[in-house]
Every structure is written in structure tokens, then in C-alpha cells.
Specification:
By secondary structure, the chain is an alpha+beta fold. The protein is built from 7 helices and 7 strands. A hairpin with a 2-residue loop joins strand 5 and strand 6. About 25% of the residues are buried. Bound molecules: zinc ion.
């Protein structure tokens, strides 16, 4: 079954949900092998969906845990009491235990996978901007335009430098939301690619070397310096992203 771009885009969500008949699914797969634009759109959809799912799982886990404990309390209570009397002590203890367990679990999740969680949010923010073609709210290659615009919307002033001479022209900036706060997203270009650089202040972050990761078709690099945290994400190769990050870090 020969499919064109429009049909591929129409069926993309159903394909992600594995709802298509095998012939249509094969048609989509065949089209994406020859069409980079549709393949990229599909990768972005996959990334977005996975990021949303992971965040949903993170937020509902403590609730599920609480429900399991509540269920245990309900079945473990003494069944042969004669008077319908509230057996409040086990219940109060269980509520307290639930609170402690939930709190402990969230602290562990917090520390153990904070980077991973932020990484998911960075992917979601980047994918959302590309999907909605809403990359820049201030479109300018002039750092003296982009920086004041961002500073006026945020409670900090992100370092903004045009890196055209190094092959990474500044395209603009926008606001995004990561790590429970508004952050600056600087948008750079490299040939046909977009590089998003998320920047926000983090007083707790010690100066750290660059950590590379690759997930869902994107390369990411994150580091901290002078009380600021930086996350770069793009579909450029890891080498180019590293060159970008090092150029940015040394230029600002
Ligand atoms: Zn196509």
C-alpha cells in the first residue's frame, strides 16, 4: 500500500497506538523509510508520548501506593467486633505510615532520578516546540534583542551569545517550563537542525562537567556553572552537540 505524507501523518497516532491493520502499518513503515520528514515527525511523536507517560507514572505512583496500603488496612482490621466502633488507631497509624512511605518514596525518586526526570521534561519541551512550530517567541539572531526579552519575562538573566562564527547561529528564544519553574530556552541552528538550550538558575547545583545522554532520537548534554544549569538538546550528532556546548560555555 503506497502512502503519501498526508496519509502517513493522518495514521501516525493510530500507528503509535498499534491500532492499524498490518497492511496500513506496513505502508506507513515503508513511507517513513524513504521520507525523512515523516520519520522525524514520528520520532518526535514517540518521544512526546513516552515523556508524557513517564511523567504521568511519576505523579500517580504515590497515589497507587497509598491505595494499596489503604486496601491492606481495610482487610486486616478485626472482623469480629460486636459494636460498630471505629477502630481509629490502626487507621491513624496507617495514614501516618502512608505519609512517611509516600514521602520517603518521593525523596528517593527525587534524588535517584532527578536528572532523568528533568531530561524527560527537556525532551517534552523540545518536542512540543518543534511539533507546534513554536520554537521562538522572540525571533532574532541578535543577542542584544533576545537577552533583554528573556530577562524581562524571567527572574534571572540567561547568558545569550550568538555563535554564528562557530556555525551555530542564534535563532531566538522562548519561555519553557522545566523542573517546576519557568526557564529560558535559547534556540540555535546548525545546518538544518535546531538546538534548544534550556537555562535556569540552580543555587544548589555545583559546577559540573558535561553529562551526555541520548534518548528517543535526541542527544542531550547538561552541565552546571556559576549557579546556572544548562541542558542542550538536539537531533544533531553527539559530536556536534558537544562542540556547540563547549563553544557556548567558553563564549559567555
Ligand atoms: Zn512523508
Amino acid at each position: 500500500m503506497d502512502m503519501d505524507c498526508r496519509q502517513t501523518r493522518n495514521y501516525m497516532h493510530a500507528h503509535l497506538d498499534r491500532e492499524l491493520d498490518p497492511v496500513t502499518a506496513a505502508g506507513i513503515e515503508a513511507h517513513m523509510r524513504t521520507c525523512a520528514a515523516c520519520a522525524q515527525a514520528y520520532a518526535t511523536q514517540t518521544a512526546l508520548r513516552s515523556a508524557v507517560k513517564k511523567q504521568a507514572a511519576y505523579y500517580t505512583a504515590p497515589d497507587a501506593l497509598a491505595a494499596r496500603i489503604r486496601a491492606k488496612v481495610d482487610t486486616a482490621g478485626p472482623a469480629k467486633k460486636t459494636a460498630p466502633r471505629w477502630n481509629w488507631f490502626p487507621l491513624a497509624a496507617a495514614v501516618a505510615a502512608t505519609a512517611v512511605i509516600t514521602w520517603t518514596a518521593s525523596v528517593q525518586v527525587e534524588q535517584g532520578s532527578r536528572d532523568e526526570r528533568i531530561g524527560e521534561q527537556v525532551i517534552a519541551g523540545h518536542a512540543r516546540a518543534i511539533l507546534t512550530t513554536h520554537l521562538t517567541e522572540v525571533a532574532s539572531s541578535d543577542q542584544h534583542t533576545v537577552k533583554p526579552w528573556l530577562s524581562s519575562k524571567l527572574d534571572f538573566s540567561p547568558p545569550v551569545t550568538d555563535l554564528t562564527t562557530a556555525g551555530f547561529p542564534l535563532a531566538g528564544g522562548r519561555l519553557d517550563y522545566v523542573d517546576s519553574r519557568p526557564v529560558a530556552a535559547l534556540v540555535y541552528r546548525h545546518r538544518q537542525h535546531v538546538i534548544d538550550l534550556f537555562v535556569w538558575p540552580d543555587a544548589k547545583a555545583a559546577r559540573s562537567s558535561m553529562q551526555a545522554s541520548a534518548k528517543q532520537g535526541f542527544n542531550m548534554l547538561h552541565w552546571s556553572d556559576a549557579g546556572m544549569t544548562f541542558w542542550a538538546i538536539s537531533d544533531v550528532n553527539a559530536e556536534d552537540l558537544k562542540t556547540f556546548a563547549e563553544t557556548y560555555a567558553s563564549a559567555k
